[in-house]
Amino acid sequence: MFNKILIANRGDVALRVLRACKEMGIQTVIVHSTADAESMPVRLADESVCIGPAASSESYLNIPSLVSAAAITGCDAVHPGVGFLAENADFADIVIAHGLAFIGPEPDHIRQMGDKVQAKISAAEAGLPLVPGSPGAVHTIEEAHKLAEGIGFPLLVKAASGGGGRGMKVALSADELSVAFSSARSEAKAAFGDDTVYLERYLDNPRHIEVQVIADSHGNAVHLGERECSVQRRHQKLFEEAPSPALTDVQRSHIGMIAAEATQKMGYLGVGTMEFLYQDGEFFFIEMNTRLQVEHPITEAITGIDLVTEQIKIAAGGVLPFTQDEVTFTGHAIECRINAEHPETFMPTPGKVEYYHAAGGAGVRVDTILYSGYKIPPYYDSLIAKLIVHGRDRDHALARLRLALQEFVVEPMPTTLDLHRRLVDADAIKTGDYSIKWLEQEFLTS
Ligand code: ADP
User: Fold this and answer.
1) Which residue blocks in 87-166 are alpha helix, DSSP H?
2) Catalytic status, residue 402
3) Cα–Cα distance, 44 to 267 (Å, whole number)
4) Which band of pLDDT confidence, cut at 50, 70 and 90, is reported for residue 164?
């Protein structure tokens, strides 16, 4: 097992990893920018290293600073957390080249899945069902028009290096294809430095359902069930639940087994998530995230498995302590992302938290670095807390969620807490009958 782990991240995920390390008796080093010097993970870690100024390009994305911090503190492993460099294969390579363990998959798997064109090719080889689309990258507008005839409209032009919903444009008809093609390319070039795009059939009303997988270096791969993440705004998830209210037990174990088998075929290592769109009873693979997900706690709630400690043990060469048959699912879990954003305009609302009170009680978990007096910096992601509830069934989880949202206080800034308080009473949430369009096209416009 590792002696000392460098946590190369910030916010609630840094605290999540820190807690896992402490529980396992592993020493911790947290890195931080000057803006995060007072943060909770810095206060709780065994050691901390300032790696640069507030701008993440000079701190949390600064590979030489991160590797130096690991070297001078005598770490033997690096946990990249979620976001920042968690899916950067070059970072993983550099960490390994410095004799440190990277707590994540092999760099080649990160690279393969980070390029969506390559990811779809690998996914098809591993037996995953794909959204019909171009067989690979599409380089010219003439080629796009020719392929579009076979795929049909509406279609989506997507960036090979895309993320966070950027570099994605819909073309409803052939007339719109040229504009969609060139604007997706230029957006992709600006955001990711790579203008490679591909085409996919646009599914008009799908759900986003993803499967958590975990695999060790001894050939064992299992799935830990699915998460329903269709409540999205601008392709950003806001409310997630497990299991999905849309699936039957037969569909659930079918897609789970397909994902687990693909994980094994790929020789994948560690935790990962296969994302699918689901429409009219069919699943379509869209991408694989080669890291821990923000919404991992709902899987932990229904399986009783700690994904971060398992991830660390696997990186140290451990064997998965359970087989597929030993994974059981209990009850229903929901996560609300509490963002420092206005609940209607979604404008960021950083600033000093004057008063903070977390919800509590049976089946309630809060992952956050908030405390009264904490200054939410304006430089980073606006996620400030995750509220996770677990109940014996979906109605029970919703009842616990409603109560927890009433108790939760973050003042004085507006946050998405108010949005969640409205959401929990929406008919579509109560029935579970919603798609990825519901929040933006129905709920927020009503
Ligand atoms: P990113 O890496 O930018 O998150 P994804 O491929 O995961 O990109 O897609 C993000 C979101 O965009 C999905 O959750 C879904 O809402 C929408 N989306 C992606 N592909 C399609 C498609 N073929 N048809 C309809 N919606 C899609």
Assistant:
1) 89-97, 107-114, 116-125, 141-151
2) no
3) 36
4) confident
Backbone φ and ψ for 434, nearest 5 degrees, come out as -140, 160
Q: Provide φ and ψ at 279, rounded to 5°.
A: -145, 135
Residue found by looking up tokens 């600006």 in the block: 190
Block residue for tokens 């929901």: 334
Q: Which residue has the tokens 């916010």?
A: 11
The ligand 1 site (C-beta within 6 Å) comprises 131, 156, 162-165, 200-203, 206, 208, 232, 235, 275, 277, 286-287, 436
Q: Respond yes or no on whether the N-terminal peptide bond of residue 412 is cis (omega within 30° of 0).
A: yes
Of residues 177, 200, 196, 175, the one with CA closest to residue 185: 196
Residue among 212, 287, 270, 215 at smallest CA distance from 242:
212
Residue 426's contacts (CB-CB under 8 Å, 6 or more residues apart) are 443
Closest approach atom of ligand 1 to CA 164: 3
Q: Is the peptide bond before 41 cis (omega within 30 degrees of 0)?
A: no
d(CA 5, CA 106): 18
Q: What is the pLDDT of residues 21-44, one digit of tens each?
A: 999 999 999 999 999 999 999 999
Joined together, the tokens standing for residue 363 give 């089946």
Question: What phi, psi does 176 have (nearest 5°)?
Answer: -90, -5
- Model confidence, pTM: 0.95
**Which tokens belong to 366?**
């809060």
Contact 270, 215 (CB under 8 A): yes
| Burial class of 304 by CB neighbour count within 10 A (0 to 12, 13 to 18, 19+) | exposed
